Amino acid sequence: MQAKPRPAPTATPVAAGDLLKRSAPELEALIARQRVVVKASPRDEKARRNLGLISVEAANRVLQAQALGHAEEASAYAALIRTSLADTLWRVTQFARDEPARAQAALGLFHADGIIAPRDPVRGCDYFSKAADAGHAAAAYRASQCLSKAEPERAYRWLERSAGGGNAAAQEALGRACIEGAGVDAACAKKWLQPAAAQGRVSAISVLAWLYASEGTTESLSRASDLYRTAAEAGDFAAQNNLGELYETGRGVSREPAQALGWYRKSAESGFAPAQFNLARLLAFGIGTERDSAAAREWAVKAQGQGIAQAAELLKLIAEAAH
Questions:
Q1: From 35, 297, 298, 303, which residue has the greatest number of CB atoms within 10 Å?
Q2: 259 domain-assigned
């Protein structure tokens, strides 16, 4: 007796809103199920549409991860698109007609970063601008970057719109603008840095810590040390160095030279020039550790090579102490 052929697998339509709740492994599993259907029925419209929607979702997660400074997460989703969704460009382009903001933001990413389309920054910026016009905060940030040199005033307006929409990268950029101009406007800087830091953007936490440290009060220094520690433990080189400085001087924390040395070393080993100089200085004078002129010279040379002018004087002192 012959067995009846099994029916071809079919796809169940996926709602775009449902994808927002899916974890990365769940998205990968969903892609795999659609691929089974497409392999059996290459023209299956539901499966092809589902893959396109997943591509839009993954692209928007790249943009969100970039906004939060989560480089590894952004790279992982970009890799997922390249390896598992490379055939979705046409479908996403069609989606852009019906759901312009998220789909156009995805197209901006694909073209600007060359993910599943030839790298074309001009075309990518055009899509980002269209998505920004439709209210997409992350696209507005990327659009502001596109225009920063050619049209700075328009770029700033996009930046404000992006920050107002909750984009952490834009919020940090506006916060930095408040302290990098003619004078430091602490209230303005905190207005934007605090929400960016609250979202977990590590570089914003580090800048906010610097702002509190610069105020110099006991309360603000204590707050700065907490913020620096959060950013330092998350791998921010500047925060690691600056937390070391607080431990060296006893500002906002108890004075602990060995702790200072440890944070300087962690930052220096990542290539941060000010930390390389600070580490060299502590090694040269035996602060927090035994004096080690050879290691001090090595770090001072590295700092000097990165433009730290004080390193030359430190090298001179190390040489004089050796005679």
A1: 303
A2: yes
